Every structure is written in C-alpha cells, then in structure tokens.
C-alpha cells in the first residue's frame, strides 16, 4: 500500500481525487438548505472568477465589466422562458452565443487599449449595460423579471423540495470551467496568452496575432460567464439590474480570482472557497444588525492576504509547502 502511494503519479493525483470525492458526497452529510446554498454560491463565483481569470489572469486584460456577460446569460434564459416558454437549457445556450457575440463586438475596439485604459473602458461598458437594463421594457427596468415557478424538473431547472440538484449542476458547471482552462493553459494558445500578458509589444514583434488571441480569450470567458448567469437566474428565479449587472459583481469576480491567485488554475477556486463562505456566514450572523460588518471582515482579510502574499492564497500555500519540504529534508539529513 505504502509503495503504491509513493508512485509519483498517484501521489500527485491523490489530493484532487479526495477533493472530487469530498465534493460529490458533501450533500449527503447535511440536510440544512443553508449549508447547500453556500457551496452553490461558491461554485458560481469560482466558475465566473475562472472565466475572468482566462482574460484577466492569463492574458493580462483587466476586465471590470464581466457582469455584462453574466447578465446577458441571465436575462436571455429568463426572458425566453417568461415570454416564449422556452426551456432554460436552450436559453442558456442562446445566452452563451449572445455573450460571445457581444464580447467580439466590444473587444474589437477596446483591445487596442492597454493597461488601465482597457480597465476603464470595460468599467464604462459595465455601467452602460446596467443603464440599458434599467431603462429597457424587455428587461423589466429596475424591477426586473420574475421567472414563473413550475413543477420540479431537470428540463425547467427548478427544484423546490431540495437544493441538491442545484448543487450538482453548479458543481458540473464549475468542473466544466476548470477543465476548459486546464486543457488550454498548457497549449500554444495558453503560452501566447502569457506572452501577451508579459509584454504585448514583444509578443507582437515575435509574430503572435495579439488581438486575435485576446478575442479568443474574451469569447471563452464570456461563454462560461453567461452559462453561469443563466444557471444563477434559474436558481434565484429573478433577474434585475442590481443582482446581475452591477459593478460590485464585476469587482467581486475579479477579487475572488486575485485573492486565490491570479493567472493560476486553482486560484479562483481557493479564492471563492475563502470569500464566499466567509461572506455568507458573516452576513447571516452579523449582517442583520451589524451595519455592514460582514463586508469589513472579509475586506480586511483580503487586504491582509494581498499585503503579505501578492500571489494570493495559492502563493501562500506554495510557500508553506516549500518550507515544510525544506524542514523535512533537514530532519532526514540529521
């Protein structure tokens, strides 16, 4: 048994295997809806943070308007169901296509900008998206649109007696986002993205079509974000400009990725694993009478981690792992 565990391949994949098994059996360990709701939100934010990470982390394009794609997926799925009785899975697919087209339309002019100018442009796009939703009758203006309640069904993506199906669907979407990212980060495209992030002018001088690869990254990022938005709309059964398009949401997607470790595969998951449960638990315990104490608590945590470890939680864990390995080596040598 010990000899088997010492094989490098098994040892490398053991933590991931344990994580997968743990996530799959978790709903069987609790019957309280709140303890299922928290991981669902964690998966939602981990998925969108991973989508943001593809463009912002690997390619170096800081997008402060990611909520536009989240809202596109959410509104498309909701409006098609409310007005045309079309199932949310088809709405999700159409929402993803619309988000990709939108990313192409917005990305072509803005990818000529670099650094803070690109970030400011995307911030403006996010605000315009919210203003459109606030003033458009189709989106229900400030009130939003309410998805009708139907019988429990996978096709209609509604489950009223238990949250477990939502848990596994959100987990599946997160797995999809991570598998897509993992399959791309070691490819030529992934290396091109990193080259663009490191030095855009140098990458262009070496023959890398910079704008094309930025557009591809934006399209993949928009697709995943819209997919999550469509799921989330059917989870909360309402879409409005304040919960699907506000700037705070875009900032939160970015913070999750930055806190966990920007430009890394597991950073968005670790960031969501810390921020979302902390946010939900502090809100439930303090939010009602705490006057925003929940926001202060996890904001302070973000500041502390970023000050002491700019590479995020993943960087902190890597440093601790190296110290433990070095300590173990000294013990063996002694």
Structure description:
This protein is mostly helical and 334 residues long. Helices cover 77% and strands 1% of the residues. The chain is built from 15 helices and 2 strands. Strands 1-2 form a two-stranded antiparallel ribbon. It is globular and about 60 Å long. The model has no long low-confidence stretch (mean pLDDT 89).
Name some characteristics of this structure.
single chain; 334 residues; mainly alpha; 2 strands
Spatially, the strands of the biggest sheet line up as: 1-2
Form type: globular
Low-confidence runs? none
> What fraction strand?
under 5%
* Percent helix range: over 70%
Distance between the termini: 27 Å
Task: Summarize, please.
By secondary structure, this protein is mostly helical. It contains 15 helices and two strands.
Tell me the layout of helices and strands.
Layout: H1 2-5, H2 8-25, H3 33-58, H4 67-84, H5 88-110, H6 115-135, E1 145-146, H7 164-185, H8 188-198, H9 200-205, H10 210-236, E2 238-239, H11 241-244, H12 247-261, H13 267-290, H14 293-308, H15 312-333
Antiparallel strand pairs: 1-2
Helix pairs in contact: 3-7, 3-10, 3-12, 3-13, 4-5, 4-10, 5-10, 7-10, 8-10, 12-13, 12-15, 13-14
